[in-house]
Amino acid sequence: MAKIKEVRCIRTRRNGMWTIVKIITDQPGLYGIGSASDVNHPETVIKAVETIAPMLIDRPASHIEDIWQCVHSSGYWRNGSILNTALGGIDMALWDIKGKEAGMPVYQLLGGPCRSAVPCYAHAGGSELPALEDSIRAFMEEGYQVIRCQLGGYGGGGFSEADAAPQPKDPWSVNRHVFDDESYLENIPNMFDYLRQKLGFQVKLTHDVHEHLRPQCAVQLSKLLEPYRLFFLEDVLPPEHIQWFRLIREQCTTPQAMGELFINPHEWMPLITERLIDFVRVRVSKGAGITQCRKIATMCEWHGVHTAWQEGGDNDPVNQIAACHLDMASPSFGIQEENSFSPEELDAFPGHGIIENGYLYANDQPGLGIDIDEQKAKALLNQEEANRPHIFIPDRKADGTAVRP
């Protein structure tokens, strides 16, 4: 039985936002990798992994559940984003090792495939409606059946030029624009009215609010979008206001997807068990790895909710392939967010997932089926860029109020 001998982190991508955990065993050539990436706090996560590592040395790599439970409670305070991410990377690496020892892909260890491939949704955008339509049509030609529609960046449709907005004498907005809830409520339904007239109802459309709205406006938007039959409306509320989903459910049938920022079972459990959302969107690494996320998937199955594990532009190929293995083996699977990488990035991760015609494919190699070429991963990193802090700058309303997330 293989035992853990070394746990270390590999930081990569140009700006250093990717952190890959590598666990090496006492068996020659047997190791596993997992994703512990955090775009805003990579050094903090690395320190957390290094702090946890001594308690893993000489433990059987196959004791995944016991290791998960021990690490989860090791800091006494738990369910935080940093510990979850460190644990998620460790957990993925252990599943990778177990699959290699068994000679099976991880999805086989999880019960075997429920589907032949994983359908994904694409991200279409445009600052004007005709440009957005063109972007959607391009993804349709690639084979995507579900496409997210954004009028510009997050919050697009709710922005006005800062100079034209009635701002105070000393405006706090550092952007060229300010956000207004009522403008969003006007423009996003108009966007979907335009798209349905141009594209019909055969293509499935989603939209990401990215938590910009006041809660009552989130309810109103969900009602206004009901005639356009969205595949789902994403993150219409922030985690702090999830109780408002009860009112949304009472008011309309617009499908809801939620969970990009979830890290605590108390966030997703009531929404799933009370059937207040339709898709749960936890990131596998932020949910503390495969071990916990497969339990979320089972809970979803029991309550008629689907998974739509979160990816996003800051995510890495290892987290993507971990989500793919869960997707393959989960009856509750709904849709997978796609992510794209540069050829140089993919070259550093042999065995990475492949997207063709809107479907994500894992390979049949043992474990996660993905590896890391450490020399190529190191070459991707620009240390000067990695040393610059990545700080989230919120949008603001005209009076200066910060807009979440």
What this model shows, in words?
This protein is α/β, with parallel strands linked by helices and 405 residues long. Helix content is 37%, strand content 17%. Strands 4, 5, 8, 9, 10, 11, 12, 13, 14 and 15 form a ten-stranded mixed beta sheet that branches. α1 crosses α3. The protein is globular, with a radius of gyration of 21 Å.
Q: Main sheet?
A: 10 strands, mixed
Text of the CATH class of the domain at 109-366: Alpha Beta
User: Helix share of residues?
Assistant: 25-40%
> In angstroms, what separates the terminal alpha carbons?
45 Å
CATH topology of the domain at 109-366: TIM Barrel
Arithmetic mean pLDDT: 95
Shape: globular
Unreliable stretches (pLDDT < 50, length at least 5) are: none
Key attributes of the depicted protein:
10-stranded mixed sheet, single chain, globular, alpha/beta, 3-stranded antiparallel sheet, 37% helix
Strands, helices and their partners?
Blueprint: E1 4-12, E2 18-25, E3 31-35, H1 42-52, H2 64-72, H3 81-102, H4 106-109, E4 118-126, H5 129-142, E5 146-151, E6 159-161, E7 177-179, H6 181-199, E8 204-208, H7 215-224, E9 232-234, H8 245-251, E10 256-258, H9 265-273, E11 279-280, H10 290-303, E12 306-307, H11 317-329, E13 336-337, H12 343-347, E14 354-356, E15 359-361, H13 374-380, H14 383-387, E16 395-396, E17 402-403
Parallel strand pairs: 4-5, 4-13, 5-8, 8-9, 9-10, 10-11, 11-12
Antiparallel strand pairs: 1-2, 2-3, 4-15, 6-7, 14-15, 16-17
Helix pairs in contact: 1-3, 2-3, 6-7, 7-8, 9-10
